[in-house]
Records
---
Amino acid sequence: MDLYIDTANLDEIRQAADMGVLDGVTTNPSLVAKENADFHDRLGEICEIVNGPVSAEVVSTDHDGMIAEADELIKIADNIVIKLPSIVEGLKACKTLSDRGVRVNMTLCFQPLQALLVAKAGAFLVSPFVGRVDDISGDGMEIIQQIRQIYDNYGYDTKILAASIRHPLHIVNAALIGADVCTVPFKVIAQMMNHPLTDSGLKKFLADWEKTKSQKSSKQPAMA
Ligand code: E4P
């Protein structure tokens, strides 16, 4: 499973990239708004850190406006992926861009039929928002499962990107279902290598090693 970071913050992206397991980045208008940075400049900076897909979202809600924005965004770097909302105009723009060979991430997906249509339109990625469905007492992971089955039934190549991830268990379940990608906030990426038994076990190993070292040095014969 590929791992993307869901942020427009450069420090977070650098720290995740330094771990050596980062495959891409997703941004959205809300994440960019937190940064107080020029949108295009920031995307350029992100693409210098990460070679994998970097999703940049349009804010137009009509086909022609989306295409005009996409035409500017793809000039930033070769790894820019155009993020479009899962609405009818977005579907049309997805088809236009995909036919031109531009990679598209269809975002704000909340039900499997949106995912079916965007796959037919040639989307590179579809982003079902797991956490936002859970937030309103739905089952976000069930949508990932349904999309996986539909795509497998018909052999669609569109990658399922589990988005709106809130905690490590979301990632475990997405991986068990077979989501192709998870996009994860930095805070949750940092939790992925944590376990209290790893910490306490390591502490004990190091303490025992210190004892072994001091025993060895006390057994050394005194030099004549
Ligand atoms: C995905 O690309 C979105 O940026 C993101 O996962 C939204 O998550 P949220 O529900 O935490 O805002």
---
Amino acid sequence: MEYRIAVIPGDGIGPDIVDQALLVLETVGKKFGHTFHCTKVLAGGCAIDATGNCLPQETIDVCKASDAVLLGAVGGWKWDNLPGDQRPERALLGIRKELGLFANLRPAMIFEELADASPLKPEILSGGLDIVVVRELTGGIYFGDRGTRDTDMGPAAYDVEQYSEGEVRRIAKVAFDMAMKRNKHVTSVDKANVLDSSRLWRRVVTEVAKDYPEVTLDHLYVDNAAMQLVRNPRQFDVIVTSNIFGDILSDEASQITGSIGMLPSASLAQGNFGMYEPIHGSAPDLAGQDKANPTATILSVAMMLRYTFGLSAEADTIEAAVKAVLAKGYRTPDLYTGEGTLVGTQEMGRCIAGEI
Ligand code: NAD
């Protein structure tokens, strides 16, 4: 089969880690007989330098003409003093909007070999951890009405949290479909004891659950969910929640794993289209030094193969290769604790490709 992928290396370590992900993609393509046509385009700080615009129209056009997008990371010190609306990170909001990416999938998993990196006690994590946070990405308070008005107490600012039934229904379906491929358990997180928007959220999620009789649904208030994530994270399979709650809980879940360089993510549109990227940023402190861990980006490619292209065996092969390389003791500097073999970005990529 042939597939078209728009590749946005971006800034900082973006180009370093994306190169390794493309090496792994090409290797898996050769093994399984697929051709991946990759077109590199600009976004972020490098796009500002080259065109004056963090998200050039050409980038949007190439992304729209592709089956999926692979993104490294954007941003860096060089552009930190630009006004908010001109910063490289604006490219991310623009891409999400242009491509209709409404569902953000953030897996938090622990590789047995890296269990020591977690800040939680070993007994809490014994048996491993494998959670996916499904976060609504284009609605809620981050996109609601906002403003400032005068009051008796001085100027007051407000941001409105609003969700329509349609928005909740489509993100709930993503979560239930995901649970069907996993352990058939969805936890919906809201604040229905206080917020009207959460009461609507809970009602719609409960309705959607009727179409998935095999999936167990439970509901948690967000404050309880935040506690449960550190008390007993193994109780979760798929967590579905709003934009703002998901922003916070997915970061909390990723910290449980202790290794930012290992975690991939996906942002999906209606249909199979998706953008895939590591959860971390552009790490300007490591850029161009062959020190960044490329594994999160490589695992993002595995997610792309599974969710956009439906190539599960190919995705499994990449994940197995990552596990094998960790089991053999190869570690990039962020994971290195004095044992095993210290390797750079390129060597880590070569090792993973070699296992494929
Ligand atoms: P960051 O994730 O880039 O870095 C946080 C820490 O983790 C740093 O110490 C960094 O060295 C380390 N780190 C990150 N990725 C790593 C990897 N693959 N291997 C080894 N170590 C890694 O977050 P930050 O420092 O807050 O932000 C840096 C820049 O990235 C900022 O301009 C920020 O706006 C941008 N950013 C971009 C994205 C994105 O493109 N999606 C996301 C977050 C931050």
